[in-house]
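Checklist before submission:
- one chain only
- standard amino acids only
- sequence pasted in full

Submission:
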Amino acid sequence: MCCHGDALVQKVCELYEQISSLESLKPSKDVNMLFTQLVLTCMPPSPIDVSKLCQGVQEIRSKLIRLCGEAEGLLENHFSTILGSYEHPLDHLTIFPYYSNYLKLGKLEFTILSQHFPHVPSKVAFVGSGPLPLTSIVLASNHLTTTSFHNYDIDPSANSKALGLVSSDPDLSKRMVFHTTDIMDVTNALKDYDVVFLAALVGMDKMEKLKIIDHLAKYMSPGATLMLRSAHGARAFLYPVIDPCDDLRGFEVLSVFHPTDEVINSVLIARKYALPAQHSSPIDPQGLNAGSIILPNKCSEIEAFNLLLNHAPQSWQHDD
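Returned file contents:
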């Protein structure tokens, strides 16, 4: 039961009760309505720190993140199947209800990457690409138009659906590769990537997420860039949180950005230390012009604000 008097937390707990009693999380009127309510409840900027909530609410939050992840996977599967029935699936991406959010998230991540990465990466990895790899598709089509994308997912059916979406496209079919494997089993190949993206729902609990980050720190090339998705404020009821001060051992955190619009995920960018860990100051004092937040030396000073995106709330932003 909910042990917190805060109205927002009470509402989240009530929605959890309703969502957890659904027979199925596959897309349907009830599922869509409840998850949209949940997102609209959690989206406004909030000073709440989920790590300080009581044990009962912490448990509800963990279960809710898993339910969100499961519903997201089913939604992406559903739309990937529909898209796969077209002769040219990529011409019909707008049928996915959150496609516009991906366009914004892709632009945001590209802008942040451009501030900290001096040239166009030749080869990037996306870990946790799923059946509808929209981040890779948006970045490859609109922003990194010469880069090759290596998409990793543990689920063979997700990869086979994803491959079906790009196989009819003469350009992306050459630049998109799909690997069916657990990222924890990938070692030396990680050295090949200039940039590694880690999806929000890879590592659903804290310990699992940290194990994956430590694995990347061990095998990525020194100086390579890691882009991660996190959550801030009440949005942390929807996605796991990465603490930039404690969770990125082996990486120098360059910037943290907390959107305040319908893009739900926060974006973190970090660089693998070329030498054993040592703290250095942020390298891009001009970064604020593009709307990201340079990480100050005192992690507590990170502020949430948004210069890059508009503020018209729509709905749930799904992460690949």
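Reviewer check: Confidence is low (pLDDT under 50) at residues 277-320.
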